[in-house]
Structures are given as structure tokens and as C-alpha cells.
Amino acid sequence: MARITLDNLAHSYLRTPASEDDYALKELNHDWEDGAAYALLGASGCGKSTLLNIISGLLMPSQGRILFDGQDVTHAATAERNIAQVFQFPVVYDTMTVRDNLAFPLRNRGRDETYVAERVQEIARMIGMEDWLDRKARGLTADAKQKISLGRGMVRKDVNALLFDEPLTVIDPHMKWELRTQLKKLHHDFGHTMIYVTHDQTEALTFADKVVVMYDGRVVQIGTPEELFERPEHTFVGYFIGSPGMNVIPARVEGNRAYIDGTELPLSAGYGPLSGKVEIGVRPEFARLSSSEGLPVKVRRVEDVGRHKIIRAEFFGHDINIIAGEDEPVGADMTRVSFDPGHVNVYNDDWLVRGAAA
After folding, report:
1. Start and end of every ABC transporter domain (predicted)?
2. Residues 164-192: pLDDT tens digits?
3. Tag placement on the chain: N or C end, fewer CB within 10 Å?
């Protein structure tokens, strides 16, 4: 395992980048804790795979350094970094059996055959391929081949880090859940440093100790699932995490009050003067529909999704979502909405502003 340090790291695919906009990965300084499980989460094209490939050594950064346990590996080859990487699409040796594919990383490092056989059997059991060990990889489904790729990535216990680049894309939904569970168990049992790239918030939040949210080449927040939900540091985090995401509404903020079209909304903290784009953000879970309390709202439709209802509404010309419990009535007279002041966040130019005690 290794502590991974990203020091003044940035990357552009252009030979002579002229501005920050030319960088696919904007400047980043961070320490990835030894033995932690991270998820890199964001939309396609946000820089997740670029960062992962820099960590693995497949890509040389335009600037900055990467260190493993304090040792500079920026110019070290992938093999010298002692990492395992699993890619989005299967990478297997078609002419080999499943057994030999899984054994290859161990044999390549001179491990004795008794250990190899035991470890291969253990991994095959984890990925559900014990009955396939003597089958050639050629002709297997993409789903089965990707399980082999995952197994080969997990077969070594002595790696500095395990890197996964959207590895469950071609896996069927039920197997995705099983393999995520096995990855969590692997992390618990052996304490590998793991970095898992995904655009799926469910995968990220159920796999990782900490989630690294990326937007437009920049890391906008690193935190636990609870931190990302309760206090999104950037409006993108609020939008991307949660289903539905956070309501973001333009407002004017003065002290401990927000004003939406001149209508007053209480806040739990006080704020100094704010210029530029000012918005409030409140999750649908912290909005409450009522017939008597709050500000006027117009309900457009109600979606019953089983455990709760999602109320789609219009609020001063802005679309908002409200979540009501499964047993909560939604009547035609419920034309007002209130927000829990303790869960109303204030954003200035998309970044969270921390207020003083009101």
C-alpha cells in the first residue's frame, strides 16, 4: 500500500497551453491516504481518467509531481510503480485459460505454484468463475472477460494501489452489486489503497471511504458521502449527488436573510456582502409542502417512487423538487413550501459560502 501525493499536478493535451481552459486537469494538490478507498466521481470528460492514468504512469503530467510514500515516481514506468489497473473494457489474453489469465501477474513475479494455485482459486471464487477456470478466454462474453480483468487486478496482495477505471460498465446489474461487495471486502481484508473511477453516484457512494468529485477538470470537493450530501462545496456537487439533486435558486442574501423576488427566507447563519452570482441551495429532502406555512409554490406533478414521493413544482419561476414521505398526503390545497433553515446553503459564483452564527 502507498500514500499517494499529488503535488502541483496539472495536465493539458495541448503542446503549448495558453490558459487554464486549455488544461484537461487543472492544478491539484492532495494526499491520498495510505489504505483508503477513494472514488473519482464526475460526468464524462471531467478529467477522471486523465488523473487515474497519471497516477498509474500511463500519462506524463504537463506539470507537477506524483509521489508514492514520499518517493517521486513522476517519471517512473508503470511497472515500477507496483500498481494494478483495471480498465473500462476487458483486457484478457484470449489464448489463455481463465486460470492462466488470473495466474499471470503472480507467475510474472516468480511466485511459487502452490501459492499461485491457492490465490487463483480464491479470486475465482470471489468473481464467480470457479467452474470456468479451464475454459479459454476466447469466446467468453464481455461480461465474463471483464470479471477476469477484475480478478487479475485483485490477485496480487502486495500492490501499492489498485486503480479501477469504470470497471463495471459491461457487467450486468446484479453482478455489479456482487462485485462491488467483493471489492469492499477485499479492501477491508487487505487494506489496499484503492481509487475507483465512475460517473455513477451509487457506485461511488457505496464503494468509497471518500469521494472525489470532479467538474470541468477540477476537483471541487473531497469528502465522505455524508459531507457531500449535507454541505456540497460547489453547486455541481449538489446537483450531481442525490436523486433528485439539490435545488439551486438565485437569491439576494443580506445578513441572515435570503430574498427571492423580494420575498424573505430565513437563514441559520449570517453573511457579509456578496457580489457576483448568488444562489441558495436546498436539498429536496429539506423542503416541506404545506397548506399554510412557507412561500407560495405551484405543484406541477407528483411522482410516487415507492418509498417516497417526488413533487415537481414551480417556485418563483424556477423548477424545484420536494420529497414527501410515502404516507404523507399531497393535497390540492398544499400551495406553500418551507425550507429547513439549517440546511439552506449559500453559494457565490457556484462555491459554498460559510456564514457566521446568526
Report:
1. 4-241
2. 898 887 777 777 777 777 777 777 777 78
3. C
The cell for 213 is 468529485
- Rounded CA gap, 88 and 135, in Å? 23
Peptide bond into 244 cis (omega under 30): yes
Domain ranges of the chain: 4-240, 247-357
Residues facing residue 314 across a β-bridge: 298, 319
C-alpha distances (whole Å) from 303 to each of 202, 244, 275, 288, 318 are 21, 12, 37, 15, 18
Extract the C-alpha cell encoding 197: 473511477
- CATH superfamily to which 4-240 belongs: P-loop containing nucleotide triphosphate hydrolases (3.40.50.300)
Per DSSP, the three-state class of 28 is strand
Q: How many helices (H) and strands (E) does the chain have?
A: 8, 23
